[in-house]
Write a structure and sequence with these properties.
The protein has helices at about 1-15, 35-40, 70, 75-80, 125-135, 140-145, and strands at about 50-55, 55-65, 90-95, 100-105, 110-125, 155-170. The protein is of the alpha+beta class. Strands 1, 2, 3, 4, 5 and 6 form a six-stranded antiparallel beta sheet that branches. The radius of gyration is 23 Å and the shape is elongated.
Length: about 180
């Protein structure tokens, strides 16, 4: 029973970690400014004396209509999303790491970084309304589409940015660089 519990915990934690932005950076041997965004203590372990980040992006997209096999098919993605009468759920999550600079000097490490975040959720959108707006324009919505939705349709979006200043020093222990 103990092995089953530990195995289930491990598999669930791997699944949840895979949904994080820049998740591959955490397992990389190279130490850079993106690692310092997760753990500022990594500034003392930079691969070089200075580090410059120009641009990095991470995008997560999920929905309830399209699978991996549909991406390789010849069908139009917009047609697949609004196919049928089942409500559509879409989630877009974007994180952009903008310009940043980091350097280390003796026991200290410093960084300035910038990030932008964006999130858009479409919840229980009627497939007929979505199809009319996305593929046929507003004229189709007014003239030919019957608006009779029994769902609590929601469109939620937010964006924000941040500028980070980080500093790290070592107070105790042996330094190995």
């Amino acid at each position: 029973m103990k092995k089953l519990f530990i195995s289930a915990f491990f598999l669930l934690s791997v699944y949840s970690f895979a949904q994080e932005h820049f998740s591959g950076i955490g397992t990389s041997k190279r130490i850079g400014i993106l690692n310092a965004n997760f753990n500022p203590a990594e500034l003392a372990n930079l691969s070089s004396k200075m580090e410059i980040n120009l641009f990095a992006t991470s995008i997560n997209v999920s929905n309830n209509k399209i699978g991996f096999s549909d991406l390789n098919s010849d069908e139009n993605i917009e047609d697949l999303i609004f196919k049928g009468n089942e409500p559509v759920n879409l989630r877009f999550d974007v994180e952009v790491a903008g310009p940043g600079f980091a350097f280390r000097h003796k026991k200290w490490g410093f960084a300035i970084s910038s990030k932008a975040y964006g999130k858009l959720n479409l919840v229980d959108v009627d497939a007929n309304i979505g199809d009319a707006i996305a593929n046929n324009g507003l004229n189709s919505l007014v003239n030919f589409t019957t608006l009779n939705g029994n769902y609590n349709q929601r469109l939620l979006g937010t964006t924000y940015g941040e500028i980070g200043l980080s500093a790290k020093t070592q107070f105790m222990g042996n330094r190995q660089i």
